[in-house]
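Summary for the steering committee. The consortium agreed at its last meeting that each partner would contribute one worked example illustrating the joint modelling workflow. Our contribution is presented below. We chose a case with several input lines so that the handling of multiple components could be demonstrated. No manual editing was applied between input and output; the record is shown as generated.
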Amino acid sequence: MTKSRRISRHVKRRMTAIACSILVLLVMLFFLAPFVWMIIYSIYPSQVLQGGIPDLSAANLTAGAYARLFSDTSFLVPMGNSAIVGISTTLICMTVGSACAYAIARFRFRGRQTLLMSMMTVQAIPVIVLAVPLFILLRSVGLYDQLFGLILTYTAFILPLVIWMMVGFFEDLPPSLERAARIDGCSRFQIMYKIAFPLAAPGMAATAILAFITSWSDFFLAKVLTSSNAVTLPVKTAAFQGLFAMDYTSAATAGVITAVPVLILTLIAQKWIIRGLTEGAVKG
Amino acid sequence: MRRTATAPAHVDKARKKDLRFGLMLAAPAVFIVLLLLGYPMGYAFYMSFQQWNDKLGMDHPFTGLSNYTDLISDPQFHGAMARTAYFSVITVLGGVALAVAIALLLNREFKGRTIARVLLLVPWAVPPVVNGIMWKLIFDGTSGILNGLLKSMGLIKDNVQWLADPSTAMNILIFAEMWKLLPFLCLLMLAALQGITENLHKAASIDGAGAWNKFWRIILPNIRGPLMFALIVQSMWSLKVFDTIYVLTGGSGGPAEGTTTINFLAYLTNFSNLDRGYGSAMAVTIMVLVLLVTAFWILLFGRLNRSKGDIND
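What follows is the complete predicted structure of the assembly.
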């Protein structure tokens, strides 16, 4: 009796494990298949893909869509714009944001808690509230549809995120090194950029990647604040699909091109990104 | 400052220097945020009290609360509110519940656990516009893969125009958004689950708690904080969904306004109708809603915290 019961419990456990593995596979399939399908769409001619089970043999492969987009200035310019805006925004955010975060983490000035909390709160403001005033503001100073206008706007939107994350990283550093440096006669500024910043470098890199991703992926603000000259990659990509007509292969290809840099950066920094994304929630 | 009375003069001086240095470091960031977030926010309030329609003319008479009272009697806004409620309830409650389930699944010991977690970042990283295009390639009526698959399996004879029916389009939108938002919530819940100590699990098993009991009595109370965070963040996102709607519906919010949420309606009002005063009133309303929903979650969980003590507290 007891033996058979033990066996049945063992069988039950095995069954659960197998069921769970199947579920995990299904979940992962759900999360990956649509993206893989878009990649397939970008490397096969659309006649092959429409109707029924597509024939995905290597003979049908084509890089034509990529060749077409990469030789089309109306696509290359937005891509360049996105790169310029993303890199500039990231650099400004990291410089200005790290300084502010360091101040919040290390100096006990009045209002630092308020400052930190307000950085958290502004992230909750829906973008739509700010979109119209920003549009009017940028138009009135001649920065509408200009890369610099977008850079300024993204900087303001991403700064709170950068500050929030960097405060966490700076607070994790042991203050003893900085104290020792001060005793050795380093100035406050030297301590910051010669000791604290290098120590926080991995966190900084992850934050920078997150800042770049946020800027690169934005659609709404770019849509509202540009019209032709400063159009970014997401706006261009979305334009491949109009209300009535859609160039599917181009849209899929543009989609892959828009997503790939973000995916690569994410995979490079995955450990830090997961930590950065979840830490605030789990701690607080 | 009480400390200055006891601290020697040079320490006091150093502290003052610290303060000045700290403020200097923080100033540029504060300036940028105030200029480009704070000022526009105030300006949005100001605009929402005016009749400001760029189609009608350049002068903007002050009209008090009339934009807001118009909202109350605007059937288009009511429709958008109802759709937003439908969308948000499913994506927030359904999303967080599913995320907890998937997190429990991924928290088990299995081969490739680390890889599975890293791959979860793929949907998170895919830009929202690309998310829209991806699902368009699947659900599109003429050349989407879904119709092709269903036809080859003999389940349908003719192409179904999935995105042509308002309520189907809304459900597809929810499905597409879920794909994008679930991974982040899952990672959050996974991190929370890992915060529960092994001892707690063991103690529960020794006490003879079944899986069901363990979930309600041990796991759920101990991930309350992250759970609240997930609900708040997801509520904010759901109330401001935009990109996927834009791409899935070709910028229309259609068919027949079927996917026009309040955020999308505010966009159309501001940037298609150029009715910026009325649109600002909508935007401000969305912000108030975000605040209310956030307050709701905080109050609800504050109550839970008081009524139920847990082991870790």
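Chain B touches chain A through 100 residues (CB under 8 Å). Residues 309-313 of chain B have pLDDT under 50 and may be disordered.
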